[in-house]
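Field log, afternoon session.

UNIT: design team B
ACTIVITY: writing a sequence onto a fixed backbone
BACKBONE:
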């Protein structure tokens, strides 16, 4: 359980999902959250879902009351937010404890975050949308100013809403291409599997439920057993059977190479955005 307030600059869908996950995991109580967001609807929904959470009139209050702050704003809003914080903290003494800032802002590197707001200890995290149901695949990178305790806290927080991995920052673009964009690839596969079922005569709702549960169950099987996907695949594909026929069709239509190229293309685009 966190002993101190946890600040949220931005209280949108992802910030709300993370806060709810931390409450479910017993890491925080709703009344420990101190949030700031200019959108009235976001504030209303956050307070409805987490009764007891408090809102600040502006971001500056968070710096005085929350030693740990989640930055969860849109990339285009990040520069003005950090500029405001930088100006407001120019009077801080050198001995004052710097806040720990956890950024989930897409495309903003640690160097850029530190340059725009030099008063914080930064950790950059790339979660993904299954965070909304407590099944996120996240990776994070730490700045030079962070401590081992800071990294441990990031691991605890993001591990509470799925799985979290510490990686060098130069790998975060690949993380974006794989797990950050990956839910969209998987949704496309679920949709295609369901369409295949409908083509073969299944009712749409049954086909979609079967497809989604098959993806969910197969992922759980691999995670829980730890076995290589190829081993699990081969157990299903008996000689001359239906599965090997289906696998041959997937190979002939390039599913494997298409997914590899999707991750590569998304990674390259993430690198381009980070360089802007």
């Amino acid at each position: 359980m966190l002993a101190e307030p946890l600040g949220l600059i931005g209280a949108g869908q992802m910030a709300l999902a993370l806060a709810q996950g931390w409450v479910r995991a017993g890491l925080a109580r709703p009344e420990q959250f101190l949030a700031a967001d200019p959108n009235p609807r976001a504030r209303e929904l956050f307070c409805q879902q987490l009764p007891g959470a408090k809102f600040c009139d502006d971001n500056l209050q968070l710096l005085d009351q929350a030693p740990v702050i989640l930055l969860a704003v849109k990339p285009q809003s990040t520069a003005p937010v950090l500029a405001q914080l930088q100006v407001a903290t120019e009077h801080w003494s050198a001995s004052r404890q710097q806040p720990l800032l956890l950024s989930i802002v897409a495309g903003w590197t640690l160097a850029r975050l530190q340059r725009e707001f030099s008063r914080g200890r930064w950790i950059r995290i790339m979660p993904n949308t299954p965070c909304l149901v407590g099944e996120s695949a996240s990776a994070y990178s730490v700045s030079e100013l962070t401590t081992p305790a800071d990294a441990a806290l990031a691991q605890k927080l993001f591990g509470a809403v799925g799985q979290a991995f510490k990686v060098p920052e130069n790998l975060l673009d690949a993380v974006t291409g794989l797990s950050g964009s990956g839910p969209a690839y998987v949704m496309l596969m679920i949709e295609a599997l369901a369409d295949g079922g409908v083509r073969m005569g299944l009712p749409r709702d049954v086909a979609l439920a079967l497809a989604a549960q098959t993806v969910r169950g197969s992922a759980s099987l691999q995670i829980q057993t730890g076995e290589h996907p190829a081993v699990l695949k081969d157990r299903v594909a008996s000689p001359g059977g239906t599965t090997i026929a289906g696998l041959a069709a997937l190979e002939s239509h390039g599913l494997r190479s298409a997914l590899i190229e999707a991750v590569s293309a998304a990674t390259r685009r993430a690198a381009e955005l980070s360089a802007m």
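LOG NOTE: The chain has a mean pLDDT of 94.
NEXT ACTIVITY: expression trials, pending approval
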